[in-house]
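Lab notebook: predicted structure, single chain.

Context: the supervisor wants predicted structures on file for every construct in the current expression panel, including those that have not yet been purified. This is the next one on the list. No modifications to the sequence; it matches the entry in the shared construct table.
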Amino acid sequence: MREHKYRAWHTEQQKMYSPEEMGADQITLMPDGRGFVNVSGTSTRLSQFYPHMIPLEYTGLKDKNGVEIYEGDILKWLGRIHKVESTFGGWNPFIDDMQTDGSWHYEVIGNIYSNPELPSE
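Prediction complete. Output recorded below exactly as produced.
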């Protein structure tokens, strides 16, 4: 069973937030998956919704350098560039290949948000 965790791209700040940063600020994914919320322990009316944060799911895999691979990441493998995308019930086909032969051949070189200039398939 793979670990379920998320990082988030903040569209207004143009910044990627790690799961650790969100955990420290007690920001969590909403049950319906449509965004993040910081639930107040005092009153739910004081909770803050973050509509400008895009949830990006962890694939459960790491690249050859031990870097966690998330949805939206851009990977390099044998001179080819791949974008990690979720599909109905899983990930794009090359992620399935990674799970079969191991992920040590792939390298995270960026993501579609922080590095829009990187080409991807």
